Amino acid sequence: MSQEIVDEVAKYLTSNIPIVPISQGAEAVVFTTTIHPYIPSSNNEKKEKFIIKYRPTKKYRHPLIDKSLTKHRTLSESRILSKLYQIDGIKVPKLIACDPYNGCIWLEFLGEDLPNGFGFSNLKNFLWMNAKDPYNDCVKDTLYKVGQQIGLLHWNDYCHGDLTSSNIVLVKDEDYGTNWIPHLIDFGLGSTSSLVEDKGVDLYVLERAIISTHSSFADKYNEWLIQGFSDVYKSKGKQGNKKLNEVLKRFAEVRLRGRKRSMIG
Amino acid sequence: MGDLITAKYSSPDIPELHFTIDVNDKRYQTTNGMTTGPSEHVLNAGQIDRDRPSDPKLLSGSSSDVEPHYTELSKLRMHLTGLQDDINIFLTEQMELAKKKKIKLHSEEEEKRIDEEINELLDGGDGDEEDEDEGK
Amino acid sequence: MVNLNTIKPKNNRNYYLALGLEGSANKLGVGILKHPILPSHESGDNSHHCQAEILSNIRDTYITPPGEGFLPRDTARHHRNWCVRLIKRALEEAGINDPRNDIDVICFTKGPGMGAPLHSVVIAARTCSLMWGVDLVGVNHCVGHIEMGREITQAINPVVLYVSGGNTQVIAYSENRYRIFGETLDIAIGNCLDRFARTLKIPNAPSPGYNIEQLANKCKNKDQLVELPYTVKGMDLSMSGILAYIDSLAKDLFKGNKKNKILFDQKTGEQKVTVEDLCYSLQENLFAMLVEITERAMAHVNASQVLIVGGVGCNVRLQEMMGQMCKDRANGQVHATDERFCIDNGVMIAQAGLLQYRMGDVVKDLKETVVTQKFRTDEVYVSWRE
Predict the structure, then answer these.
(1) Does pLDDT of B64 surpass 70?
(2) Is residue A115 assigned to a domain?
(3) Which of A67, A148, C246, C328 lies in the 20 to 30 Å Cα band around C150?
(4) Does residue B111 form part of some domain?
(5) Which residues pair with A95 in a beta bridge?
(6) Quick check: is A188 in a domain?
């Protein structure tokens, strides 16, 4: 990430809050810090880490567009996260603080580093790590659980808006050491929506992300994701089955639209 | 001079049809066809047609006043232009016929669909798609 | 292992010559391209570095009166009646007297594009092939843009933003395919601009998008913007809603509908927004969306280079915004080409086609030369890259 952006963040946070950059997404830069925004640091004996997600000024776009997008997305992400955190079964990071005008939120830190230099434990790196044995039980179990998370999200009428394998963080299951618990992150394009269309598009975006990033194994991976997704709906009885059919039908339509879209030079 | 060009149309519905040309007929003596001009629509919008096919080339020494003699390639182009007109006129008739038949048999919706399909074919489509082209 | 040198050029020459024919939309392009045989092409991923020499690159555009789009049958007629003249001129400019012996391969656009114009051009390609006894290669138009862009800019493995009248896609290479990461969910960016230009009844020459760009430059009040919907969906985007909205604003402006409070001051009745302001706001909004989805794809695949191709890619403001985005990313670089290569042309078809030819991919039966309106970028197996 460019020094200019690091300086911009450091200036905003002041020197009292040391930060370590960890990633630059498209929209936001992510840092870790050991400072909690309002609990005195003397209480943080375990040296617990926190995430600071900062949306830097995008100089390429008009200041008016930039201001309005930054504010809108920071606020909406915070709202969605805090609501999702309260829903049983849904795994998202806990929101600690939010400053919409400066495009900054503080979150609990999730995930870890994968062994052998495979990087941070998001789904993308995890799948790449398993590329030599792509269909092992752990991969299957993880993808099924990812599907369940999306199922729960949609069942509660939320849409993610940007589902990719980088936006799913895996956290080690403390009870079963080898298992992973997927957490959904990055709700900057998230929304509440009861529209079948939005859910269909959400699933389509994820399917395409899997196809383009994990091409060779995508068929099986997408199948497991949809299994997990479907089982959430099926567990909700008759109503669930009906809604599931609607969503899957629309998903198929969106996919067809995508393939058939004319591509005139 | 070689053989004159011909065309053949075959379909399960009608007997095979042969298109031939008559070199003395005016329609086979031009490179500017009746059915291959610009569409009315753009002309009405003020289009100046700069995309005309070039005129046939006279053999050197020949004059267009008396009896003109054209190069072989230009003759072929003229023959082709007339033959293409014949085919276009025939195909348009066939489409009109098909449309009438279908209207009798089907609802208005069908008719619209067939119209669209015909347009699609006229625009050189594959005949199995229904999307919007850029220019419309 | 990729070896681009297994197929030898004709007559023991130490270079290849390809003729490229493009006519998938309203531009007819004919180009002749030369590749020297390079030792570096015997193995490795060097298809972006062919030292291609452009011997000719000729284009003629079918232009309609202001307010009108181009209909397939008129566009096809334009191509039909200009194709031979353009091929002759291209051969002459390249100094080729004997195409039978000098040209290794004829490359044509197989799709995607408008059916009728594609048909017109492929007939010319087949005729030349039969007449001269030269091999044919069918090329995917989008892959043509990408390969030309890579060759000109030397970008090795960029994220590609492909923006034209018919396409809006964010593409990245992986495992022998150009994979589509994001794209428009409805209309293409160029189509959006063209249609707005028609509403404004501004000229279609040299291109509607160019004229919108010029109007946007003339906007006097760049601090202000007319607020438009911002519709990014993950790495995809949609534009039809924006077009419908700005179209309605333009119509209200022309009608002088004083009730519209965005356009007219409700107290004084004074006009607040001009056509130039609308063009400026539209560009700022659409391009911000394009740059954003490009940056998303870059972040996703860890790329640092961007290549902009397609007709809308010559827009200076778009290039500037993309450059600014790249500046803020570590080692970010933006690559773009000028109108000779951005706008549809024959040379790009020759470039992609010659790479295919050098990998042994030629038409074996004329049946394979049937053109197709739909031909997705990721359908092509990219044999010339690792």
Answers:
(1) no
(2) no
(3) C328
(4) no
(5) A107
(6) yes
Enumerate residues 6+ apart whose C-beta is below 8 A from C270.
C264
Average pLDDT of the segment spanning B44-58: 90
Give the integer Cα–Cα distance in Å for A150 and C292.
24
Domain residues for the domain of B30 are 6-106
In this structure, the answer to whether residues A22 and A45 fall within a common structural domain is yes
State the pLDDT at residue B121: 66
Considering chain A, what percentage of its residues have pLDDT values greater than 90? 68
Contacts of B54 in chain C (CB under 8 A): 81, 85
Residue-wise pLDDT for B90-126, tens only, equals 999 988 988 887 766 666 676 677 677 767 666 666 5
- DSSP-derived secondary structure letter, B106: S
pLDDT in tens, C74-96: 999 999 999 999 999 999 999 99
Domain assignment of residue B85, yes or no: yes
Distance from CA of A61 to the nearest CA of C (A): 5
Q: Determine what percent of chain B is predicted with pLDDT higher than 90.
A: 38
Q: What is the ipTM of this complex?
A: 0.89
Shared domain for A133 and A76, answered yes or no, is no
Q: What pLDDT, on a 0 to 100 scale, did the predictor assign at position B125? A: 62
Give residue A4's pLDDT band: very low, low, confident or very high (50, 70, 90).
confident
Same-domain check for residues A235 and A132: yes
Q: What is the pLDDT of residues A147-197, one digit of tens each?
A: 999 999 999 999 998 898 989 999 998 887 789 999 999 998 899 999 999
When scoring B123, B130, B132 by the number of chain C Cβ atoms within 10 A, the one with the most, hence best to mutate, is B123
What is the nearest CA distance from B86 to chain A, expressed in angstroms? 31
| Parent domain of A84 | 3-108
Residue A265 lies in a domain: no
If one counts every other C-beta atom within 10 angstroms of the C-beta of residue A188, the result is: 25
In a domain, B30, yes or no: yes
Question: Chain C 107-146, CB below 8 Å of chain A: which residues?
Answer: 109, 112-114, 141-142
Residue A99 designated active-site: no
Q: Please report all neighbours of B, defined by 3+ CB atom pairs within 8 A.
A: A, C
Q: Let me know whether A68 and A101 are in one domain.
A: yes
Q: Does C321 touch chain A (CB under 8 A)?
A: yes
DSSP single-letter state for residue C266 = T
H or E element: which one contains C32?
strand C27-36
Binding residues of C: 141, 145, 162-166, 194, 209, 213, 315, 344
Residue of A nearest to B132 (CA): A262
Question: Is A3 near chain C, with CB under 8 Å?
Answer: no
Q: Is residue B112 part of a domain?
A: no
Cα B36 to chain centroid distance, Å, stands at 6
**Is the distance from CB of B123 to CB of B132 less than 8 angstroms?**
no
Of all residues in chain C, the one with the smallest CA distance to B127 is C115
CATH 3.30.70.100 fits C10-149+344-379, yes or no: no
Three-state DSSP string of C43-73? CCCCCCCCCCEEEEEEEEECCCCCCCCCCHH
Domain boundary among A80, A108, A136: A108
Which member of A2, A262, A265 has the closest CB to residue C328? A2
CB-CB under 8 Å, C374 with B129: yes
Name which of A35, A2, A74, B40 is nearest C324 in CA terms. A2
In this structure, is the dihedral angle defined by the CA atoms of residues A49, A55, A56 and A60, taken in order, positive or negative? Answer: positive
d(CA B108, CA B102) in angstroms, rounded, equals 10
- Summarize the confidence of residues C120-139 as an average pLDDT: 97
- Say yes or no: A129 and A210 in one domain: yes
Q: A261 contacts in B (CB within 8 Å)? A: 131
Domain count for chain B: 1
Domain segments of chain C as ranges:
10-149+344-379
* Pair A81, A142 in one domain: no
pLDDT tens digits for C201-227?
A: 999 999 999 999 999 999 999 999 999
Among A2, A161, A212, the residue with its CB nearest the CB of C179 is: A212
Number of structural domains, chain A?
2
Show the tokens assigned to B120: 């699609």
pLDDT tens column, A238-261 = 999 999 999 999 999 888 876 545
